[in-house]
């Protein structure tokens, strides 16, 4: 490999493009990513309802219900963005089965929330609409906050 070239292509890092790709060129990819986000939010809503019911005390139960309310807001916002992009309503689908114990639920949630933060930050960079970008970045911040709550409850459970 050209030794000079390597400085411009760090592994695992996308090259920076200083020109704006046309939105249309990326729309197809972006729509499938919005579909993925919608399925993820939909699955989280179902599972957090179940996990909240397994919580050992009202404090944790109420916090998880509050998190579920955030996911309902995210689902509504992603649905609006999807509808704007495609002109049709999405059909949300469960992506996985919900955990069956509280401990498993917390594990599942920490991991899922953390992965969703990454996913949303990447998605926010892909969209050119500033309003959409802001909504997705705010959702990423919410998911990061959720991850910390679930991690805290997991920590308390282990003591
Ligand atoms: Fe969410
Ligand atoms: Fe979340």
Descriptive report:
The structure is a single chain. The chain has helices spanning 23-54, 58-86, 102-126, 130-158. It has 159 residues and is mainly alpha-helical. The chain is built from 4 helices and no strands. The longest helix has 32 residues, at 23-54. Helix 1 (23-54) packs antiparallel against helix 2, helix 2 (58-86) runs antiparallel to helix 4 and helix 3 packs antiparallel against helix 4 (130-158). Helix content is 72%, strand content 0%. The chain has a single domain (25-158), classed as Ferritin (Up-down Bundle). One fe (ii) ion is lined by residues 44, 67, 71, 113, 142-143, 146.
Full CATH superfamily name: Ferritin, core subunit, four-helix bundle
Which term fits the overall shape?
A: globular
Strand content: under 5%
CATH topology grouping: Ferritin
- Structural class, judged by helices and strands? mainly alpha
CATH architecture label: Up-down Bundle
The ligands bound in this entry are: fe (ii) ion
InterPro entries: Ferritin-like_SF
Pfam families: Ferritin_2 (PF13668)
Protein name: Rubrerythrin
Topology:
Layout: H1 23-54, H2 58-86, H3 102-126, H4 130-158
Helix pairs in contact: 1-2, 1-3, 2-4, 3-4
The structure holds fe (ii) ion (2 copies).
One fe (ii) ion binds next to α2 and α4.
Pfam families: Ferritin_2
Protein name: Rubrerythrin
Features:
mainly alpha; 72% helix; Ferritin-like_SF; Ferritin; Rubrerythrin; 0% strand; 159 residues
């Amino acid at each position: 490999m050209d030794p000079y070239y390597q400085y411009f292509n760090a592994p695992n890092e996308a090259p920076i493009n200083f020109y704006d790709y046309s939105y249309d060129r990326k729309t197809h990819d972006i729509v499938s990513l919005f579909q993925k986000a919608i399925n993820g939010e939909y699955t989280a809503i179902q599972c957090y309802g179940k996990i909240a019911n397994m919580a050992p005390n009202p404090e944790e139960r109420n916090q998880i219900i509050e998190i579920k309310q955030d996911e309902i807001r995210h689902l509504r916002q992603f649905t609006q963005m999807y509808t704007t992009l495609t002109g049709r309503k999405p059909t949300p689908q469960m992506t996985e089965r919900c955990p069956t114990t509280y401990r498993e639920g917390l594990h599942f949630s920490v991991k899922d929330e953390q992965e969703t933060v990454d996913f949303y930050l990447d998605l926010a960079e892909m969209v050119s609409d500033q309003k959409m970008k802001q909504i997705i970045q705010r959702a990423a911040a919410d998911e990061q906050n959720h991850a910390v709550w679930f991690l805290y409850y997991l920590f308390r459970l282990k003591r």
